[in-house]
């Protein structure tokens, strides 16, 4: 699953990079601040991503914005951190 995103930046180089960003969404079992703290060092090692976990969502959705990382890479990293992860499929 890949979705293009678009946001406004003042720097043309950043704008060009942002246009190529992909957004991936995953269901996880990252459900509290302790879990977020546990996965943070793993996700922060992945280059060129921005991420957040919606712990209020029943599916604990992990959202990744990236221009280089693949879904498979993200899934391997989260599993290595000890959490469950699965792709969110478009309906």
Short description:
With 91 residues, the chain is α+β, with helices and mostly antiparallel strands. Helices cover 33% and strands 26% of the residues. The protein has helices at 12-19, 33-44, 71-80; strands spanning 3-4, 22-28, 49-54, 61-66, 85-87.
SSE order and pairing:
Elements: E1 3-4, H1 12-19, E2 22-28, H2 33-44, E3 49-54, E4 61-66, H3 71-80, E5 85-87
Antiparallel strand pairs: 1-2, 2-4, 2-5, 3-4
What does this structure look like?
With 91 residues, the protein is of the alpha+beta class. The longest helix has 12 residues, at 33-44. It has helices at 12-19, 33-44, 71-80, and strands at residues 3-4, 22-28, 49-54, 61-66, 85-87. Strands 1, 2, 3, 4 and 5 form a five-stranded antiparallel sheet that branches. Residues 1-15 have low confidence and may be disordered.
Taking all residues together, what is the mean pLDDT?
Answer: 82
Overall tally of structural domains:
1
* Poorly predicted tracts of residues: 1-15
Instruction: Say what the CATH topology is.
Output: Alpha-Beta Plaits
**Per DSSP, what share of the residues sits in E-state strands of 2 or more residues?**
25-35%
Number of strands: 5
Shape: globular
Amino-to-carboxy terminus distance: 11 Å
Residue share in helices?
Answer: 25-40%
């Amino acid at each position: 699953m890949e979705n293009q995103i678009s946001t406004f930046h003042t720097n043309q180089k950043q704008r060009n990079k942002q246009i190529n960003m992909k957004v991936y969404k995953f269901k996880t079992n990252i459900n509290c601040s302790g879990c977020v703290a546990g996965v943070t060092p793993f996700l922060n090692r992945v280059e060129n991503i921005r991420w957040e976990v919606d712990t209020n969502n029943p599916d604990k959705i992990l959202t990744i914005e990236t221009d280089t990382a693949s879904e498979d890479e993200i899934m391997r990293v989260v599993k290595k951190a000890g959490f469950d992860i699965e792709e969110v499929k478009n309906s």
